[in-house]
Design goal:
This protein is an all-alpha fold. Helix content is 74%, strand content 3%. It has one domain. Helix 1 runs antiparallel to helix 10.
Amino acid sequence: MDIQLLFSGVIFGLSLASIYFLISIGLSLCFGLMRIISLDQLLYYSIGAYITYSVVTVSNNFWLGIIAGVMVGGLVAFIVERLIFRRIYERELTFSMITSFGILLGGIGIIKAIWGVIPRPIKPPFANQIDLLGTDVPAYRILVIAIAGLVYIGIWLFLNKTIIGKAIRAGIEDMNHVEGLGINASRLFTITFVLAGALSALGGGLYAPLIMVDPSMGLEILAFVFMVVIIGGLGSIKGTLISSIIVGQVVSIGSLIYAPLAIMAPFAMMLIILLIKPTGLYGNKLNK
């Protein structure tokens, strides 16, 4: 395989991993703290993309579209958490998964009613190429990778250096202990859920120029995002980052070697990892 082609594939894989990470981190945070499987994160991902599209169409300002998408995604997540999830936190894990999937499907129907079913293109904010090691790579993909890296650093600082973040970390370890200290668990749940929704919307807005914005875009990426969370270990932030990179590279490099590998290889890899370590790379027997 040509070295330049391989390097381009690696950059493509890292940009894809960045999107997987932004969505999967919300799933991990929600499971770690609230013990729910929030598949509706894929709805906020789609909302972020569509709001970005709408704002760019009106204002021709991509970054304004990203900001609007993140705000609307976070707002919708807030409404969903208040009206629906707050009522089911004590239910079984499978109940939250089925409920969230129903929210995703219902949200797709609303998106179709508002924007229609025709895929919509968004132009990237810039289309220039950057020469890296003798290979021309799209500057926008490099920017997406950089933004995902900054988000990871920001989440790490938030969870380790702020009072609310430390409370969330403590809640992931032992929610009963946190409540015993007088911390409002309900408020922590809301903050975490809105943060997860905003990050998913950011992923959708950033990914929009690289694909066609489509009502079913959340369903199309669902299997890969779920694989990322399972491989990394449910509730593990570090595991989510590493598994995002692994899955992104397997999809990208696999498609260069043999196109069907882009779909088959991640599933095979997930099965092998789960056979060796059933809780994922960084999960433990309690899935914390």
